[in-house]
Structure formats: C-alpha cells, structure tokens
Amino acid sequence: MPIASPITITRDCPRGTEQVTLVDLRAVEALIGTFTSALDAPPHLQPTAINYARALAELRLLEWGAAA
To answer: pLDDT tens digits, the chain, 68 residues: what are they?
Structure first.
C-alpha cells in the first residue's frame, strides 16, 4: 500500500513537541528528475518540457494533499 507523501507527524522533543514532515524521497527524486530533463531539453522544446514538469509537480502535490 503506497504511503502519501509528505506526511507530517508531531513528536516529543526536549522543549515540548515539534512537527516533522516526512517525505518519500523517491517521489521527490522523480520530480527533480522531471525538471532536470526539462532543462536538458533542446532550446525549442524547453518551454513545453518545463510546462509539463510544472503540471506534473502540481498534480503530485494535489495527490499528496488528497491522500493526507
């Protein structure tokens, strides 16, 4: 069963409690890879590739928000 990412938990610490956000690193690496590929695209394709990467990142954030 996949886990939503990011997940925010509250934990005890010496000064009381703190909120910690845990992120599925593979999901973040995939998004970074998409942006890196967009930047490496030929100049005439970069605007389209960057728009695709932005849309994919926005979709992923919406999925994370819905699953949280």
So the answer is: 354 566 777 878 788 888 777 777 777 788 888 889 888 999 999 999 999 988 988 888 777 767 65
Q: Quick one: tokens of 9?
A: 């938990």
Helix (H, G, I), strand (E, B) or coil at 44: coil
Contacts of 28-31 with CB under 8 Å at 24 or more apart are 31/56, 31/57, 31/60
Q: What are phi and psi of 46, to 5 degrees?
A: -55, -45
3-state helix, strand, coil in the chain (%, to 5): 55, 20, 25
